[in-house]
Amino acid sequence: MNIREVRKKIKSSTNVKKITKALEMVSAIKMRKAQSEAIEARVYQTNLEEIIKKVAAKADPKLSLLLQTQKDAIDRTLSIVISTNKGLCGSYNFNLYRFIIKNSQVKNSDFIVIGKKGGLFINSIGGQVIADFADNQPLANVSAIFQLVIDGFTKKKYNKVNVYYNKFISTLKNEPIAETILPVTYKQEESFIKEKIEEFLIEPDPRVLINQLLNSYVEEKIRDCLIQAIAGEHSSRMIAMKNATENANDVIYNLTLLRNKIRQEKITYELLDMMTAKESVES
């Protein structure tokens, strides 16, 4: 390798470093915004779940189809897969794909995909995609996704609805999980069970109130999963671009040492040639 080739590689690595550094900064800004939205969404979702626990504990499950397991429905699952539209986010999508393959029955499921990467993956494993929401603004499609989910479950096309996504835990950690959003189930903590439930009056009607609460819960659950996935995506992309920038720095450093070494060798050989020529003339 000559010095010209080394200089070209240094220039190329420097350009790559500029790109990865810019992507890292953009992802950091988006990550902060997405993280704040994810934290705020958790508070609302937690309070909504608490209300449903209190009301559902005193209500008959027959009041809403969303509380009932559709035993006479087709033995088929509707799965919502939340992935990304773009790459350059490390193992974010790969971990989700591996989790889906391990924990879902592809042949017995229909899929709603959010993100281009997820759509390509489901098609590659032979899954049936009934709706593809590959959009740069996925939160704008929550109402449409919710309507598809409710119609499919209440019309007994599916006996279960799951969401597969990467849950945001921290900037350095995302965990692929699956959550069942229909039928609605709630786990009562031991302290809540022991607590004496106060008598309260449901107005205007238990059926109307429970249906509205459960519909809001399912829609907000889909939105919350999307927000968590978006926060995890930007965190993963920021970390991936940071690692890429550091690797580019290492490559540039090593190539610079190699360039200096080649240049010093060239100077040494030229000096030796000059000394040899001088000794020849003198002799």
TrEMBL record:
GO cellular component terms listed in the entry, alphabetical order: plasma membrane; proton-transporting ATP synthase complex
GO biological process: proton motive force-driven plasma membrane ATP synthesis
A Pfam family recorded for this sequence: ATP-synt
Location(s) in or outside the cell: Cell membrane; Membrane
Bilayer topology: Peripheral membrane protein
Family annotation (Gene3D superfamilies): 3.40.1380.10, ATP synthase, gamma subunit, helix hairpin domain
A GO term, aspect molecular function: proton-transporting ATP synthase activity, rotational mechanism
Keywords: ATP synthesis, Cell membrane, CF(1), Hydrogen ion transport, Ion transport, Membrane, Transport
UniProt cross-references to InterPro entries, sorted A to Z: ATP_synth_F1_ATPase_gsu, ATP_synth_F1_gsu
Family affiliation: Belongs to the ATPase gamma chain family.
Entry function: Produces ATP from ADP in the presence of a proton gradient across the membrane. The gamma chain is believed to be important in regulating ATPase activity and the flow of protons through the CF(0) complex.
Subunit note: F-type ATPases have 2 components, CF(1) - the catalytic core - and CF(0) - the membrane proton channel. CF(1) has five subunits: alpha(3), beta(3), gamma(1), delta(1), epsilon(1). CF(0) has three main subunits: a, b and c.
Record protein name field: ATP synthase gamma chain
Organism this protein belongs to: Candidatus Roizmanbacteria bacterium GW2011_GWC2_35_12
This protein's encoding gene: atpG
